[in-house]
Design a protein that fits this description.
5 helices, globular, alpha+beta, 4 strands, 4-stranded antiparallel beta sheet, Alpha-Beta Plaits
């Protein structure tokens, strides 16, 4: 439980959010906007089998996650559109920061769900958990002009 001065961390999809995502019935490509805030030191306490022999930064753990994930993402028709360094907002909360921003494209919702449930992909998910202090994931659907 968090106190009033702390904000909740968002690291996993809830059942309600997953259901709402599927119920949106997005047609065609879906792009996932990822906002990522890293731990100073990666925390592999939940997945010690993935832990490196010496401590690494959250950013390095996330790079290991990307290296593990990319083949599975591409296998299901997805790819990274943009991966970049974050920083302070130009418009937004002054004290809020995101270390990395990613745009991940998937050819459709079913392909994304196939990727997200792939057992080989899931084996490396501990790198992501170890890396992140907080995150946001926003599914985007292109507007028709």
């Amino acid at each position: 439980m968090t106190n009033k001065n702390e904000t909740a961390a968002y690291l996993e999809v809830t059942q309600e959010a997953g259901r709402a995502f599927v119920m949106r019935r997005i047609k065609g490509e879906v792009v996932m906007l990822n906002l990522l805030r890293f731990r100073g030191t990666a925390d592999y306490s939940d997945t010690p089998d993935l832990a490196p022999p010496t401590p690494i930064s959250g950013e390095e753990a996330f790079r290991r996650y990307i290296d593990h994930t990319l083949p599975h993402l591409r296998e299901t028709g997805g790819d990274i559109l943009f991966l970049g360094k974050g920083g302070p907002f130009l418009i937004g909360p002054e004290k809020e920061r995101w270390d990395m921003v990613a745009l991940i494209r998937q050819k459709d919702v079913n392909s994304f769900l196939s990727f997200a449930s792939n057992k080989d992909y899931l084996r490396g998910l501990g790198h992501r958990s170890a890396a992140l202090e907080d995150s946001r994931l926003l599914p985007l659907e292109e507007m028709k002009r």
